[in-house]
Structures are given as C-alpha cells and as structure tokens.
Specification:
- By secondary structure, the chain is mainly α.
- The chain has helices spanning 2-25, 46-49, 52-58, 68-86, and strands at residues 28-31, 38-41.
- The protein has a two-stranded antiparallel sheet with strand order 1-2.
- The protein is extended and about 60 Å long.
Length: 87
C-alpha cells in the first residue's frame, strides 16, 4: 500500500511540475520605454527553455546513447515550438 501512495505522490508532483512549466513557457517581459511598452516572450525557442544536450551531459549520458524514440520526441517538441513562434 505504501508504494501505491508513493506512486500517487510522484504523479501529483509531475502534474504540478507540468503546470509550473506551462506557466513559465508563457512568461513575458516588458521591453521598451514606459510610454511605449512592448511585451515579448522570455523564451523565444524551445532550446532556450530546455537545453536537451546540456541536460544529457549533466546526467552523464552521451548523446549517441539516446534512443531513436527519444530523439523523435525532442524533434516533435522543437517543431511544435517553432509552429507557435509563427502564430
């Protein structure tokens, strides 16, 4: 029963982390003078928000050891981000 509760806590953590990341990725900052302020996104590209290569190095995994599926997921995320930049 204890493992069930620990699993639930992990799922709740993941949900809250996702909510926080959704909030962070939409963050904007004001740029320009007070007479003519403009809003711009803090993160202009997915790589600004999450540097995949840097993270792999930090956990000690060589990029060549990453599976094809993991590479595909990273590429899909990058494409989605680029699509949002256009809109």
């Amino acid at each position: 029963m204890r493992s069930y509760y620990l699993t639930r806590v992990d799922k709740e953590y993941d949900m809250h982390l996702q909510a926080w990341l959704n909030h962070q990725v939409k963050a904007k900052r004001t740029k320009g003078s007070s007479k003519n302020p403009k809003q711009e996104y803090v993160y202009k590209a997915f790589n600004d928000f999450f540097n995949y290569e840097k993270r792999l190095k930090k956990v000690g995994i060589n990029h060549k050891d990453v599976t094809i599926e993991e590479k595909k997921m990273a590429m899909v995320a990058e494409r989605v981000n680029k699509r949002e930049e256009v809109e």
